[in-house]
Amino acid sequence: MSRFLLRRTFSAVLTVLGGTVVAFVVMRLLPGDPARLVAGEFASAEAVAEQHRALGLDEPLWSQYLIYMADFFRGDWGFSYSLGEPVFEQFVRSVPATVELAAAAVTLAFAGGVIGALISSYSRGGPLDAAVRASSYIGLGTAPFWLGLLLLIVFFERLQWLPGPEGRLSSSTAAPPPVTGLHTVDALLAGEWATLGDAAVHLILPAVTLGFVIYAFLVRMLRASMLELVREPYILVARSKGRGRWGVIVRDVLPNALLPAITVGGLVLAELLTSTVLAETVFGWPGVGKLVTDAILQQDFAVVQAFIMISACLTVACNIVVDLLYGIADPRVRVRSS
After folding, report:
1. Contacts from 296-301 at CB under 8 Å and sequence distance 24+?
2. How far apart are CA 304 and CA 260, in angstroms?
3. Which of 14, 41, 80, 338 lies most in the core, judged by the most C-beta atoms within 10 Å?
């Protein structure tokens, strides 16, 4: 297992380096001059040249990359000219909102995926099974931004049941005392039940938008795994002993079907990273996704580049954790790796 971990870590380091090199080069090839953007549209050539030296853009590309990587791992992610503050501080301020939204989306997706797979496998071939499969097809074939707009039109504009794209709280609701940065958790800790309700209601539409695609992944995978497991000999033996079909599915089939769900962790994170940008933009959610979208519109390359670096590191780290968890949960993986 230790050799397996070393191999995966070494591979992860190479992957991160390769991804960051590509991202760095691509950002430098994009149209627009960061020095010109910082100095201003009507700045003189001397002022632009001074900004080039200040930003290190007069250095060779390989030297710029090494300097950026060294600064990045020291916590210096550059300076955002559009907001006038360090990029690191912007991410620290935006991360809690994204974590709260992602946690709500994953919770809804996992609960819906498990319940949907149970219903689908129990009523295989029936109308409920068809409904679950249809929902998974819709989830995989629907763009998150389109789903978000559709939900806003139906539940905000037409029915007026849920709040619109106004962020994490209503304008008339004060934020709870900050402890974790998660409004729902902070309101719960402070005992501010009205704030908790307002924060939870504002989470519904963006969490459903973000979690629907993840639900579709999970329910399809769990359903296929459960339908395969019900034909295993130990399941047939359990049924032959007189145990009910529902009890066998819940107690014997579902726990074993959840094991392959570990491998979806990397896909889930990749989906969250991409869909969060779209969902937060649609709903005005002040998280990392909206921060990056605004930075792209402002051509604030320091913010975009930091997001790409973080995304690469998180994806690779998540894949390593998935491999380790799968090795712990399934002894056959440990035997093969040894």
Report:
1. 298/82, 299/32, 299/34, 299/37, 300/80, 300/81, 300/82, 300/83, 301/27, 301/30, 301/32, 301/34
2. 34
3. 80
21 with 60, same domain: the answer is yes
* pTM for the predicted model, two decimal places: 0.82
Range of the structural domain that residue 308 is part of: 1-87+287-338
**Per-residue pLDDT reduced to its tens digit, 268-312:** 776 777 788 888 888 989 999 889 888 888 878 888 888 888 888
Output the average pLDDT for the chain. Answer: 82
Q: How many residues does the chain have?
A: 338
* Residue 19, both tokens: 């991804």
**293, two tokens:** 């979208």
* Chain centroid, CA 319 distance in Å: 14
Q: Kindly state the tokens that stand for 86.
A: 């360090």
CA distance 155 to 320: 40
Give the C-alpha separation, 327 to 1, whole Å. Answer: 8
Asked if residue 183 and residue 66 are part of one domain, the reply reads no
247 has pLDDT over 60: yes
157: left (phi over 0), alpha (psi -120 to 50) or beta: alpha
Look at the chain and report how many structural domains it folds into: 2
* Contact yes or no for 76/82 (Cβ under 8 A): no
Q: What sign for the dihedral angle of Cα 140, 142, 144, 147?
A: negative
* Inside any domain, residue 143: yes
Q: What are phi and psi of 85, to 5 degrees?
A: -155, 165
